[in-house]
Amino acid sequence: MMNFTNSLIQWYLREKRDLPWRKTSNPYPIWLSEIMLQQTRVAQGLPYFLRFTEAFPTVFDLAAADEEQVLKLWQGLGYYSRARNLHATAKVIAFDLNGKFPGTYKGLLQLKGVGEYTAAAIASIAYGEAVPVVDGNVYRVLSRYFDVETDISSAAAKKEFFELAASLLPKGKASEFNQAMMEFGALQCVPKNPDCGNCIFNGSCLALKNKKVDTLPVKRKKTKVVHRYFNYLIIKDRAGNSVIQKRTAKGIWHNLYEFPLLETLQEVDFEEAVRLIALHSFGFTPKNIRPLHHNEIIHKLSHQHLHIRFWQVEADAIVQEALGVEELKKYPFPIVIHNFMEEHWADV
Questions:
Q1: What is one GO biological process annotated to this record (predicted)?
Q2: Topology of the domain covering 2-215
Q3: 8 Å CB contact between 305 and 225
Q4: pTM, 2 dp
């Protein structure tokens, strides 16, 4: 056991990436990075981290920001509930806790948006608390090295892997060990086609010995994907302005902005789409309705595939609350709408 731990930490000290949140024990940037890197690769998350720490150098700055500013900076990172929870938690820390993060794993678990993994990461890295992290990387490394066939989607898996990781934690080195586990899973023991020939554990890894690298970790539960059909209506009034609305309902993209939406139960052809759009209550009679692209845009989320079309709806009138394009771009949009605006606005 200790051979594994010592070898892993030595590998980490030699191979670790130079990342800004690794140069501090301040819980604020550590927390920020951990929230951002949930469901996100480091290469994608790093520019967001740098923009956030520039805009909000302290937890007080983040707490004082408008939610729309936070969401705009987060735009494109996905899983927007993370950003809303981040903002809410910053307010609690700044205003209720005088800017001080809870100093223990159990205390950190009380914060909104902080689960067991994130609490363990912050507690061990910022405070040196001896609590193991267990995420996808850790499941993969431990299941392969020790040939553990427990289904990682099962209820029993978390406890089993937590206890296994805890048994490997070296005294006084929780920060290095936890970061080493995560880094090893991210760089070396990757999900597909890991370079086992150049791995420090190729003489002791049981999955390699038993030819099971490709089958571990075991994950049997499949996520059911729901298909939804979105038709976004880009209204162009006589002044060339357009209308947007805020998504206030709970669910995807909560509190982000979008164009008026017509959602259908299934894909509809051109004639049916035009008929349904014409029935929409605009407060004016559409002068012309046309599609803005030939093929539907498929936007894949973790549990949903969105089939999206954008339609131009012309109005021979001035529409109240319609905004010009430069004003529109200041609002936080889902990235699929933002990208469409950037690429196609000249066609509208």
A1: base-excision repair
A2: Endonuclease III; domain 1 (1.10.340)
A3: yes
A4: 0.86
